[in-house]
Design goal:
heterodimer; A: MetI-like fold; B: alpha/beta; 6-stranded mixed sheet; 4-stranded antiparallel sheet; 7 helices; ABC transporter ATP-binding protein (chain B); cell membrane (chain B); ATP-binding (chain B); ABC_transporter-like_ATP-bd (chain B)
Amino acid sequence: MPRWLRRTTGPVGLVVLWQVLSATGVLHPDVLASPGTIAGTAAGLVSDGTLPSAMLVSVQRVLVGLVLGGIAGIALALASGLSRLGEDLVDATVQMLRSIPWVGVIPLFIIWLGIGEAPKIALIALGVAFHLYLNVYAGIRGVDAQLVEAGSSLGLGRWGLIRHVVLPGALPGAMTGLRYSLATAWLALVFGESVNADDGIGFLMNQAREFFRTDVIVVCLIVYALLGLLADFLVRTLERLLLQWRPTFTGQ
Amino acid sequence: MATDVHGAVTPKTADGASAAVRVAGLTRSFDGRAVIDGLELTVQPGEFVALLGRSGCGKSTLLRVLAGLDREIEGEVSVPRRSAVAFQAPRLMPWKKVWRNVLLGLPGRPERAVAEQALGEVGLSHRTDAWPKTLSGGEAQRASLARALVREPDLLLLDEPFGALDALTRIKAQRLVAELWRRRGCAVLLVTHDVEEALLLADRAVVMDEGVIAYETAIDLPRPRDIASPRFAELRARLLDRLGVDGPTDSPADSPSSSGLADGPAGDGLADAA
C-alpha cells in the first residue's frame, strides 16, 4: 500500500464517518450538516452567485488592507532600518504598540470608524503592518556587514549600498514577513467580518448563524481555508521568482 | 600615478608620485589600545609585498586602513586612487550573478563584455551567468579577484585570499595571482600568515609585530620559485624565527647555512626577471 494512500485514509475516513453519523441521525443538522448537504449547499451558493460576490467583497477587503498595511509597515521598517534617527523614533514606538493584541482594538476601531468597511480594512492593515515591519526591519539589520564593507570597498556610495546590498539582502526577511502578514490578513478578515458585516463571507456566516444553517457556515469556513491556501501559493511563487539566487530555497 | 590621500591627517597630494603606498606615523587604537602604533611603510609601484604577522598583530587592520574602510586613524596614508581589495571570504553579493558582481560599483554603465573579459582572465568564463552560491570555493575566490582586477587597480590589496581554500586549490590560486601580477604590473600587498606563500609570490616580506613593521627582507629568489631550494628554506627559517616560531623547522635544509647569506637590502623594491 503506497504511503499517499495510507495518508489519505485518515481524512477520507473522517468524512465517511461524518456522513454516516449524519445519515443515521446521530449528528443533528443543527449541530453539523452532513458532507453531502454541504456539497449541495456549496454548489447552490456558487450557482446563484451569492458565494462569488461575497468572496469578491472579502478578497477586496484583504487586498486593500494588505496594500495599506504593507505600505505603512515597509515605510516604517525602511525608516528605522536605514537610519539611526529613524530607529530611535520609530522602533521603540512600534515595539510598544506591538504588545497590544491587535484583535483587541476592534471596539476602538468601531467607535472611531463606525461599522462600515473602514474598521475591517484598518484591522487588516494593522495586522499586516506589524508583521511586515518586524520582518523587513530584522532583514535590513541582518544584512551581512562584510558584504556592506565589500560594497563600499567597491566604490558604492550610501544609496548604492542600500540599492545593491541592503535591500536585496533584506528581501528574504521581507518575503517571510509577507507570508506571515497574509496569514494575519485572513485572520483579521474573519474577526472583522464576524463582528459586523452587511456583505462578504462574514455576512454569509452571520446570516447562517441566525437560521442554524451549519452547512453554509462550513462552506464559508472551507472558502476561508482555500483563499488562505491560494494566498500562500502566490507568495511561494513570488519567492521562487525573487529569491532564485538562494540555493537553500526549496519552496517548489 | 594618481594619489588619493585619506585619513585624519591629509597632507601631500601629488608628492608620493614615486610610491604606490606611503604610510607614515600611522596609529590606530581600539579602546585606547594601539593596534597599529606609529607604523611606516612604503610600497613601490609594481612591487609585490607580503605582509606577515601573527594573528592579532594588526595586519588586517592595516589592510582595512589602506582600503579606506577604516578612517579613524592618525598619521599619513596615501594610496593610489585606483585600488581594489580581495578579502579572505570572497564576499560576492549572492543576489547578483557573477558578472554583475564583477561590475558592481564601477562608474558609468559598463557593458557585460567588460566583466566577461575579466572573468576570462581568471579562467571563469564558463561561470559568467552563475549565481555566486553555486560556485566552489576556488571559483568564488577567482570571481572576487576578477572583481578587483576589472577596476584596473594600481594597488591590489589581498587579505589572506587563499586562507579558506583547500591545499590544491590554493596552489592554483597562488599561481593565478602570480600570473595576473606579472601581466598587470600593479603593486600588490598580500596579507598572509603563510610564510611559504609569501616566499613564493612576493618581492619583499615585511613582518608586523607590536603595531609596527618589525622586520623586512627582500626575497631575491629567481622566479618561478623553487620551494626546495636551499635559499628558500633559509629565508623561510628566518621568517619563521621572526614570527616567533621557535626550534628547528621541518625543512630538510634548516640545519646549516645560517651565515653566509645576508639580508637583502630592505625596502628596496626589486624588479624580477621572470
